[in-house]
Amino acid sequence: MMYIHELAKLSGITTRTLRYYDEIGLLIPEKKIETGYRIYEQQHIDRLQQILFFRELGMPLDQIKDILNAEGFEQLKSLRQHQKALLQKKHYIMGLLETVEMSIQSIEEGLTMTNEQKFEGFKQQMIDDNELNFGKEIRGKYGEDSVLAAYSKIQNMTAEQYKAVQELEGRLLERLKEAMELGDPTAAIAEEAAELHKRWLCFYWPKYTKEAHAGLAQMYVADQRFTEYYDSRAGSGATQFLTASIVHYTQMD
Fold first, then answer.
1. Which of 19, 115, 118, 168 sees the fewest Cβ atoms within 10 Å?
2. Which residue intervals define the domain HTH merR-type in the entry (predicted)?
3. What is the separation of C-alpha 197 from the centre of its chain, rounded to a whole number of angstroms?
4. How much is the pTM?
């Protein structure tokens, strides 16, 4: 049993935060009727640990609440998922540290550092993020060999290719926004957005087909996580519009 100030000291978060978690129903302690003090039992401490794990991964509080309150929530399974995510994060940080150390050495000791080495850590982050967020889905749709081949293409990108793919995505998002203003997914500017999306994919895919392109677009609207990617960057409805544009584009002669 712990009082609120004891749990705050143990966990490293403020009493104000704990009170807020109580107010929104995320972490509801027992309360002594005569004093009104918040009392935290072991189950509350374990739940707070889960909350902090999810927060470390950048998950919003309302989503954390839904997950923890869901019927059939399994603590052990959740911890293993946290472990996997944190190991991937550790791998990314270690890669960045290695890149930083090499950059320092190249300046201090006059060592030669290739352009590819300068971007190695960032390319690994692209792979880790994709694997964490969409690994299961893309393996189910395209198979293990295709996924590994795509990751290999990312790892083998030159500095120029890495820069080009970042710029290409920026152009794609700008064209998508402009096309949405017209409201016609079959318009010429929408076709241009679909073409840019194809060129962007070709940096990652070992082989392009219209069927696979259209199938990926359908996955965008079928899975909320994919939908949020474009909607958060180009505006509400962007994913639906892009999907319609890609379907039209892939049906053109």
1. 115
2. 1-70
3. 19
4. 0.48
Rounded Cα distance, 39 and 14, in Å:
15
Task: Count CB atoms within 10 A of the CB of residue 202.
Answer: 15
Distance of CA 244 to the CA centre of its chain: 24
- C-alpha 182/C-alpha 205 separation (Å) is 30
Cα–Cα distance measured from residue 228 to residue 221, given in angstroms and rounded to the nearest whole number: 9
CA atoms within 13 A on the CB side of 195: 10
- 247: tokens are 């379907």
Report the number of secondary-structure helices (H) and strands (E) in the chain.
Answer: 13, 3
Class of domain 158-253: mainly alpha
How far CA 84 is from CA of 79, 133, 222, in Å, comes to 9, 12, 25
Q: Is the dihedral of CA 34, 39, 41, 43 positive or negative?
A: positive
Whole-number CA gyration radius for the chain = 23
Question: What kind of architecture, by CATH, is found in domain 2-69?
Answer: Orthogonal Bundle (1.10)
Q: pLDDT tens-digit profile of 140-170?
A: 766 777 777 777 777 777 777 878 888 999 9
